[in-house]
Specification:
Number of helices: 8
Shape: globular
Distance between the termini: 33 Å
CATH class of the largest domain: Alpha Beta
Strand content: 15-25%
Structural class: alpha+beta
Protein name: Nucleotidyltransferase
Largest sheet: 5 strands, mixed
Helix content: 40-55%
Mean pLDDT: 92
Number of strands: 5
Length: about 200
């Protein structure tokens, strides 16, 4: 990675960790902050993730593992509530780069998209339907809610992304680094056993 790209990645990584920004907005804000033209070539998400890991190792090594474990436990509780809809955890909480400012992203693979919404109503969850970018860049319906994380004494955004059951096949292909891009309930339980501080 060239010097300019690594500077952008480092600036974006700081915003991801310190402000809870997603990668895209953090890259754009880093460009603006550095006074660079909008068409400047940006680092890829893998490069941002590497910079985020470096930032966490340098500045948050004492707090981040406990925050990550708390977020994974909160994610697991939502996954268990939504178990009939084949939940998979993705994003920073799955990949291990989350802090207490990170949101939780859970993909649900449903026979009937409306059934997940009905389940949330049954759980008396206050949610907001919205449209977000899915894992292939397409528009996906999401049910977003705020959930109290008692361990961190804060409110965490939880986003349940609704996919068709047929989408599950392509959802488990390894990413460019050979890692699973998301994990089911059992995989999250294993992560918690392996990494709880």
């Amino acid at each position: 990675m060239d010097t300019l790209k690594s500077e952008i990645a480092a600036a974006a990584a700081r915003m991801v960790v310190e402000e809870g920004l997603e990668y895209g907005p953090a890259k754009r804000r880093a460009l603006k902050q550095m006074g660079l033209p909008a068409r400047t070539q940006l680092p890829g998400n893998d490069e941002i993730e590497t910079a985020v890991r470096e930032y966490i190792d340098l500045f948050c090594a004492d707090t981040q593992p406990a925050e990550l474990a708390a977020l994974r436990r909160l994610a697991l509780s939502w996954m268990q509530r939504m178990a009939p809809f084949r939940p998979y955890l993705g994003g920073a909480v799955w990949h291990g780069t989350a802090t207490k400012l990170s949101d939780i992203y859970i993909q649900l693979f449903c026979d009937d998209p409306k059934s997940a919404e009905i389940a949330l109503i049954d759980h008396k969850a206050d949610y907001e339907p919205r449209t977000v970018r899915g894992f292939h860049g397409e528009s996906v319906e999401a049910l977003s809610l705020s959930s109290i994380c008692r361990e961190l004494d804060t409110i965490i955004g939880v986003h349940l992304l609704i996919y068709d059951l047929d989408d599950l096949r392509g959802a488990l292909k390894p990413d460019a680094r050979g890692r699973s891009p998301r994990g089911n309930i059992e995989a999250v339980r294993r992560l918690l056993q392996d990494t709880t501080p």
